[in-house]
Every structure is written in C-alpha cells, then in structure tokens.
Amino acid sequence: MTGEAMDTAGPRLDVYGDFVCPFSWLVGPVLAQVRVDLSLTLNRRAFELRPVPAPFPDEGYLHANWEHSVLPIARSLGIEVRFPAVRTRTRKAHEAVAFADTRGMADAMGEAIYRAYFVDALDIGRIEVLARIGAGLGMDYIEVRNALEGDHFTDRVLDDLERAAFLGISAVPAFVFNDSSGEGATRIGWQSADDLRHWLESTLATVTE
Q1: Strands (E), the chain
Q2: Residue 188's Cα: distance from chain center in Å?
Q3: Residue 203: pLDDT band by 50, 70, 90 thresholds?
Q4: CA–CA distance, 74 with 80 (Å, rounded to integer)
Q5: CB burial readout 16-55, b (16+ within 10 A) else e
Q6: Is residue 122 part of a domain?
Q7: For 135-143, which contacts have Cβ atoms below 8 Å and span 24 or more sequence positions?
Q8: Among 40, 127, 160, 165, which one is least packed by beta carbons within 10 Å?
Q9: Residue 28 is assigned to a structural domain of this protein
Q10: Rounded to an integer, what distance in angstroms lies between the CA atom of residue 138 and that of residue 104?
Q11: What is the sign, positive or negative, of the torsion defined by CA atoms of 99, 49, 36, 74?
C-alpha cells in the first residue's frame, strides 16, 4: 500500500493511478475537494500502465488525446502540463512513493514525481532522478537510491498491482470505494468533482440502506 495510512473504521476511497497518466495527476484537486466534502479516508494505490514488456502507445494517439482531452481539463483546473518529452516505465517511481510513505511524505513525493514528468520533462524511470526528487523534499539521497536499487519496496507495489488485477482494473485513474463493512464499488476513468461526488454519495446511500 502507498499513500496515507488506512483507516478501517469508516469509508475510504482507494485511488489507483500511474505517473505517466496525466488524468491521474489532474484528478488530485478533485480528490482534495471531494475528500473534505464527504469525510473520506484517501489511499493512493500504485498501477503500471506500461509494465515491462508492454509496448509504448502510438505517439499520434497520445498527441490527439493530449490536445482534445488533457489540455482542456488542465486549463479548467489551472494546472500546468506539458506533453511528455520521454516515455518511461514507472515501477521505481511507485517504489519511491512507498519509500516516502515511511517518512510521512508519500503525497509530497507523488506530486513531485508527476511534476517532474509533466512539467520538467525528467525521466522518472531512472533511480538517480527519483533520488534527486526525494532529496529535494528533504529525504536522504543515498537512502532513497539504496532503497530503489535494492528493490526494498517492490513487494508493496506488487501488492497494489495484484489487488488491481483482482478488481479488474485495467485503466486509471480508478476509484474503489470501501465502507466500514468491507462492501465496495469501483469506478474507472476521469471524473469531475461533481461526477465523483455524485457517485460516492449514491454509493454511500446504497451501502447504508
């Protein structure tokens, strides 16, 4: 598990995302708003859109999606994004967030990795890049690098990936609502604040009847 500590006493929302998915980053402000409105515990979960040896998607498709979908949403939220200059794998980026979680800095690390990729054009698949990002947040560069080189947090990421597979999640962002009894519901794809709030309120009403 990555992100904030799980609170099983009340409803929680597990959010699966990947650092090469712009919608996974752009949904951040939406989650912050809805989380406060509905008093939800939020858990960020790892997902790899392009694990080895999956091929990278067609560049033309990415550009079309960027112009027609990503940029309009980013502008509406006031978030700066740039078309990625590199294509990369994200396993180590998720491991870096898992490491940061042990320092109480998972959210800050995740946000910094998204910004590094979508604004600063850095290759977030490289361990030295991730270690520098961690150091910029006040973590020890050598500790971050050693943790990633030694695969110390791989199992935590794999746990998230196995759970996603069990739930049938094949795209992100994905939202998994769980109430205190363990009942759940899943929604996949970009959600506006109104859409996400409506779904959660409807789900809450259903499981509490």
Answers
A1: 12-17, 41-46, 174-178, 184-188
A2: 13
A3: confident
A4: 7
A5: bbbbbbbbbbbbbebbeebbeeeebbbbbbbbbbbeeeee
A6: yes
A7: 136/112, 137/100, 137/105, 137/108, 137/109, 137/112, 138/105, 139/99, 139/100, 139/103, 139/105, 143/99
A8: 165
A9: yes
A10: 12
A11: positive
CATH number of 140's domain: 3.40.30.10
* CB half-sphere exposure, 170, CA atoms < 13 A: 1
Separation of alpha carbons 47 and 49, rounded Å: 6
pLDDT tens, position by position, 5-37? 444 456 789 999 999 999 999 999 999 989 888
- C-alpha 162/C-alpha 155 separation (Å) is 10
CA dist 29 and 155 (Å) reads: 29
* Tokens coding 96: 């870096």
Q: What tens digit of pLDDT does each residue of 93-126 get?
A: 999 999 999 999 999 999 999 999 999 999 999 9
CA–CA separation, 98 and 92 (whole Å): 10
Average pLDDT over residues 177-200: 85
In the chain, how many domains are there? 1
In terms of residues, how long is the chain?
209
Instruction: Give a yes or no: residue 140 inside a domain.
Output: yes
Does residue 174 surpass a pLDDT of 60?
Answer: yes
pLDDT of residue 184: 75
pLDDT at 163: 94
Is position 63 within any domain?
Answer: yes
